[in-house]
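Bug report

Summary: structure tokens for p0402A09.8 protein differ between web form and batch submission.
Environment: batch mode, default settings.
Steps: 1) Submit the sequence below via batch. 2) Compare with the web form result.

Sequence submitted:
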Amino acid sequence: MHPSKTTATVVANVAAAALPLPLPRAATPLDARMVKTGFDVLTYRLNLGLRSLLSSGHLHRARAMFDQMPHKNIFSLNLILSAYSSSGDLPAAQHLFLSSPHRNATTWTIMMRAHAAAGRTSDALSLFRAMLGEGVIPDRVTVTTVLNLPGCTVPSLHPFAIKFGLDTHVFVCNTLLDAYCKHGLLAAARRVFLEMHDKDAVTYNAMMMGCSKEGLHTQALQLFAAMRRAGIPATHFTFSSILTVAAGMAHLLLGHQVHALVLRSTSVLNVFVNNSLLDFYSKCDCLDDMRRLFDEMPERDNVSYNVIIAAYAWNQCAATVLRLFREMQKLGFDRQVLPYATMLSVAGSLPDVHIGKQIHAQLVLLGLASEDLLGNALIDMYSKCGMLDAAKSNFSNRSEKSAISWTALITGYVQNGQHEEALQLFSDMRRAGLRPDRATFSSIIKASSSLAMIGLGRQLHSYLIRSGYKSSVFSGSVLVDMYAKCGCLDEALRTFDEMPERNSISWNAVISAYAHYGEAKNAIKMFEGMLHCGFNPDSVTFLSVLAACSHNGLADECMKYFHLMKHQYSISPWKEHYACVIDTLGRVGCFSQVQKMLVEMPFKADPIIWTSILHSCRIHGNQELARVAADKLFGMEPTDATPYVILSNIYARAGQWEDAACVKKIMRDRGVRKESGYSWVEIKQKIYSFASNDLTSPMIDEIKDELDRLYKEMDKQGYKPDITCALHMVDHELKLESLKYHSERLAIAFALMNTPAGTPIRIMKNLTACLDCHAVIKMISKIVNRDIIVRDSRRFHHFKDGVCSCGDYWERSMQVQMQMQQATTVLSSSSNRPWTLWCHPVPVVSSPSHAKNKKHGLRLRAGMAMASSELPDLSAIQRVVLDIEGTTTPISFVADVLFPYARDNVRRHLAATYGSSEETRADVALLRAQVEEDLAQGVDGAVAVPPDAEGEGEGAVVEALAANVESMIRADRKVTALKQLQGRIWRRGFDSGELRSEVYDDAADALRRWRAKAYIYSSGSREAQRLIFANTAAHGDLRDHLCGFFDTTIGAKREVSSYYEIWQTLGTDRPSQILFLTDVYQEAAAAKTAGLEVIISVRPGNAPLPDNHGFHTITSFAEISI
């Protein structure tokens, strides 16, 4: 069979077969015009045929038709290339591309996408460079395609967009902005955003997510507000972004408001948005709300299950996780979308290597074990289970090791305390040519911090800058933490001060730094500063504050912040929080409260808590509780030497040498070894370690000479060795000799000999320093005129000019222990033992009966307020701020008397004063401005007000103004223009006697009775507020009992910033010294977030409160004494 000759007729017939309608036989006038202008009609029609074949999935027939076409154009080529790319046939696409003489920007872009889809990113970038080399100008699709390629550096591509005039196109700008945000280059993203003339929802969504990713939640909220003011409709991505912000802020109220907005915007309510809501509730630990939403979702996908499984995994609900995972399997979800990574994370967090191996086996059967995400999850799981050999094996077996793979292994070594090995892996990773990401830096800096290698830390700081993280919130936060842990508090604070932007992690890092240096006042000051800047504290924040209180023996402050965390911020304490509180109470001798807290804790005490109790028993010689704590620890951690050593020391300090020897014998019989005490110092990026009384170290003779020189100087200043720190039954001389060469003293002497005069000395120690060493180092710091920073197993001690940063609290605690030893050698078991310090009871806020429930529910219902059984301690209150409507006056008085009076008399007031009163002219100007804004935003009921110049007379202007005012009153608008005019109208009513205000009897009595200064904060104008309290029907003029008035000029009543401004105005030391009384839940929540003490007034006719709202409530002011 001979091949037929290709003719136009043959091709036309092929095309006709592909087209839904036959090709017309006769030329049309339009065809004639096309031919006349040079347009190839046949090629155009054949291209339509190609498109039809390809859309029907007939790629081979389309290629045959393409090969037979007498004339092909770029469009024909691009159609076939795009089809090959979509089908994954890269070799065929590549062959056709190379054989084509003519290619445009679209052609190149199609090939770039084909290579990127095949995972050949470097080839895609090479194509872009080749395209530019051939002089082809990229279009907007090309630029956005390259920007989305992994490994593309946005700053290098941005100039191309500017060069080719594409930087003004919204599509390109959005891609640039998104790329900058994803790379953490928020400053560059902000510049792009500000320079954009046209913005759409994608623009705002990308910028919001960028801010949220960097922890800049307030800026993200401002962007959301700007988007709404610009009239840009929110998309499902918008709601997802703002819910991410709410979760990052742990802002339940904001999340509930967004949820309500989603319910009203039915067009965006889909499984994607519901999944975002699930994620929000899960990250706020609202598991009940999350589960309720999940059960009510009309449609669920694999993401829905992944979110809820991850949430239960995070909250260590292993049984629920396994049940949901099996449910997913039964529902027939594609195995490849099952949350294997989450399940591996659960196995690691338990840790349960048996579950992890089962998941590993499934992955091997499915051929998924080599996937990047799951392979890295396997490395992480085995690391968390302490099986570093298995983790290393999985890492080594990977054919391609990404930066994430390296990071997973490095993190595993750091988590298992193998910091030097982690540093070696980091060096190997760099030699492999891989760029560290944030997680890598976080882990490796943690390793550097743990080894206290400040030289390495500074090198990593420089490397961070070179890697493009110079000004990011992330880099600032990790560096603050690193410098603090390496004993460089000044550098940590300087890094914090130089950060252009901060988030809650940054604040947590600096609060933690102060806490570990024993500077409790500065830690608390930073905590207050964090609140003032609008950041909500989280569990980590309070853990640092409680640790600061613990290190300084501030029992009252510790209990205050513990209850603040639970009751004001609704944060459930971790075991670590209880450990800090118990440690603080124990160290000041409040053992009855320690025992009470052990009973009240929602979980069993762990080794950290029992060890803390044991340390406190050592200080106060409490042998009875010490034996209980030690027995608990013997069962929990049988190989840990700590309880044996402490209990032995307690007996030794009391002179009970036989009991001490008995404990040591039990320790030896059980094969438990005491950890040797050693200290180390870094000099010229090399670590030098010293063990206590180890006289085999290099340069030991020189070190002993240096110490002898120092001891002579100390003797001149009255130094007397405290031999009670040598807990051995030996003679006096041997005790003195054992004290002389404790490890930290050897390290200090060595550092003095090998570092320049005047430079700080930083010593790290694996155990706590003894009382005599603490005293010795204070004296050395004064003699040598050097700062000496010692980090022991608990905290930092910064010695300078003979003074320690702990304020000698730690030393005083040890002295208490010495006094206990001197007071008695046989400890009584009586509960009234003389050595137990009497401790002032700390006021405890009673928990409401519903405390186990979440503070906020998904639904609101009418009913009684769920009040706490006892009001908080109000003894510190100095100022009271009162709402009016529903709090001091009946809600009916405002709604049924004042509002109708203003509405009914607005025309009369304006007609009587318009044109004759400067006051009214100012009111009208304010109203006009408000109406113009309402008209621009499309507010319902807004009516244009004619200008006076148009000659329409005062009547038309008054009528239009009155119509707007009536509309605002109906909508209960909280705008200054309305409130100011209402105040003028009410003044006329009060002056004429037509109005008299109603104030609750208990409110009037309280204003006369309270010692604290009282203020009013209402959405009504200040003039209206004064009129109400000056003209009460039953109590006369109450203004003498009020010290001031606030209205919405200071800010809206539901905004946190408003209450911060009130606190600044009232000038108390702390916002918690201000009590705010209101009937509105949203106002209460805002004031609480700002740090004010809040009580909700429950009066007849008030709106219902949310279930489990978490606030104290009253029904009468008589319940409050201040």
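Above is the batch result. After comparison, the two runs are identical; trailing whitespace caused the diff. Residues 1-27, 814-869 have pLDDT under 50 and may be disordered. Residues 846-889+997-1122 form a domain with the Rossmann fold fold (CATH 3.40.50.1000).
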